[in-house]
Amino acid sequence: MVDSIRVALLGAGTVGSQTARLIVEQADELERRVGARVELAGVAVLDPSQISDPWIDRALLTDQTLELTERDDVDIVVELIGGLEPARTFVLSALNHGASVVTANKALLAKHGPELYEAARKNGVDIYFEAAVGGAIPIVRPLRESMTGDRITRIMGIVNGTTNYILDEMTTKGLDFATVLKDAQAKGFAEADPTADIGGFDAAAKAAIMATLAFHRDVRMDDVHVEGIEHVTDSDIAAARAMNRVIKLLAVVEQDSENGAISAGVYPVMLPADHQLAKVSGSFNAVFVEGEASDDLMFYGRGAGGAPTASAVAGDIVTVARHRVAGTTGPDIPLYSQAPMADAADGESSYMLRLSVADNVGVLAKVSEIFANHGVSIRALQQLPDEDEQGNHELWITTHSVTDRVIRETAEDVAQAKDTSSVLSIMRVFEDAQ
Amino acid sequence: MVDSIRVALLGAGTVGSQTARLIVEQADELERRVGARVELAGVAVLDPSQISDPWIDRALLTDQTLELTERDDVDIVVELIGGLEPARTFVLSALNHGASVVTANKALLAKHGPELYEAARKNGVDIYFEAAVGGAIPIVRPLRESMTGDRITRIMGIVNGTTNYILDEMTTKGLDFATVLKDAQAKGFAEADPTADIGGFDAAAKAAIMATLAFHRDVRMDDVHVEGIEHVTDSDIAAARAMNRVIKLLAVVEQDSENGAISAGVYPVMLPADHQLAKVSGSFNAVFVEGEASDDLMFYGRGAGGAPTASAVAGDIVTVARHRVAGTTGPDIPLYSQAPMADAADGESSYMLRLSVADNVGVLAKVSEIFANHGVSIRALQQLPDEDEQGNHELWITTHSVTDRVIRETAEDVAQAKDTSSVLSIMRVFEDAQ
Q: What Pfam families does this protein map onto (chains A, B) (predicted)?
């Protein structure tokens, strides 16, 4: 008979603090849900003197993290430090000392996940990480359990709130990227070093985790093709708007139904303005999951923030605590698939290219010929009336479906023809309605 | 070491047939996910000679259901018969003989759920029912596990595809209820006896299940206040459209943050046309969940249909099979809350009333006085220019928030004033943006 489940918290930032609050404020409720008292056993932080949350007993604070992860009386270690090291060392220490782990650390899982899952399995403990993807949104558990009787074909989502906020602001206020980023940083919606977010790396980590769960294959950060939003200009946004489209940074993972190859990518995409993902605004996240039998599912909610993320962490704590009380663990993460990773250059999509072309007779014919030479079929073409200072016009070309490799080669040839044309931007266009 | 998990299927209709297909066609995949072979042990149907699905081995067919549920070599009984009896007898037989149960039977769970959960707990087996609410949408597992570290405040959803389809057709095609119902029946989107759907009872069963999981209290079908769509007229639809609103049948369960009282209801509601639920069309379902920490979450997908529902059933089979292999069970469903059920008459909402009023001086004053006498504050009032054959005009009144009791009393007084006015319809209006 287990009387209490003792939880060690690593990190007491916005998520850690809210997690502590949920555990302490809901102690009676959680006890009845779990069948044992859920208590904080310790809270490890860099500087205990900086912590003043009323729900964190100061006697529990320590800066000796490894002492906490090694303690025999700790059942669950909740890692909310983020980053690769020392988080990885702490998580492994916890698992190897017989504690289950709850973590929100997508970077760690996207880099070392399979080793950590194996360490948990070997030690007969749990590792749960609902908060690592989509903040408050239950997406990990549905992929890990609810959909395991089906064949997932594709997952497509907005999984980074910072970039979604920035693109949103650029779209609704007509501001340029640098201005919006600066404002987002001032408001705390973007980090001082925003590279992980705007470079697409945070979304890529989440893509790797989702692909691993969906396709039962070891997919890492390095397997994900990443393009961020740093090159998205206000002119791209204006062009999208003129075409009744919206630009979103999407994480897309899919498995080819014919050859089984898995692809995982993060890139800005132009979506029809009435697409469900086009309407996901600000810091909200949304994930579409397509299954062979389930058809389309969508999960939507707050992708970040202290309390929302803590909601997911606390749900994992309750789940893992119940397992400890029952003397069991949840399902492990079976990674049996040997499916190949697709080459990102083979990925197919429609594209929109913004070109700058000289205003002379024959330039359209020349550009069209370059596209034709590469076998790229043009779906729509539009030349803007306005001239720039050099007397050039913008030319917008939307293609039919073509591989990434071919569109890059085509764009290179267009860029070569310097006397007549240059490439302003290339962006994927998804037209399938949702 | 468990070599195989043997599954008995009760019922081989559209969902049963697709469940069998997923098990048989994905046998190798499921074996690697579960760690043991998942096999059909038997398929009980009323008339085995009627079954011709290529993936169901004819040797497995039987019409002796209890022989199947009592067999020692059956690990999981999948109940897809529906209805109260004999489904309840079969499920209890399975649980009492040591088999875990997977069911999609919302009517059974809304009526006898807590007894069945207790029977499962007592016998040390699982009862899983993801498909009972929202078809393919993972909503049961998120409520049962993901959100158990948070306090759920409200759930609001479109959980019946038939009524959503009918209201959709009435809205987009301007047809009346009877015409659309007949067409839906011809197309197989509505049952020959459509009472359970259009009367709101199917949605009410789902509301009871969601309330039970969310609030940890025994909430049954009889606790749910039910209004169907059978009285929704094309005039109501037209009035909604004129106000830029859409009529949806919603299941709403909530817990009062002050007195803890739980309310559960199903009723047609006018939503702003740009509300996320307003855009859920046809047979799709969508469920909003509001948590204290998580904030708004939305789950969206196919609420019915053979393959989508089978996706949820198969996910439960895998989950339960993994538990059998590990010699454990999932969390039980703790129903510790003694919170009172709120009286539906105390439920507050804005309302829209459509009245028919005589075209004479003073009628507006008289109607306004009745509302004022009941303390009902009018937010908007609109008199239509057109006269009917009796020379009466339609008067649309939208109120501020008021209890159901008071609006009914007010409407009764309006109806009493027969010489001047009568009540055409009363409907809730939700204005809060999502």
A: ACT, Homoserine_dh, NAD_binding_3
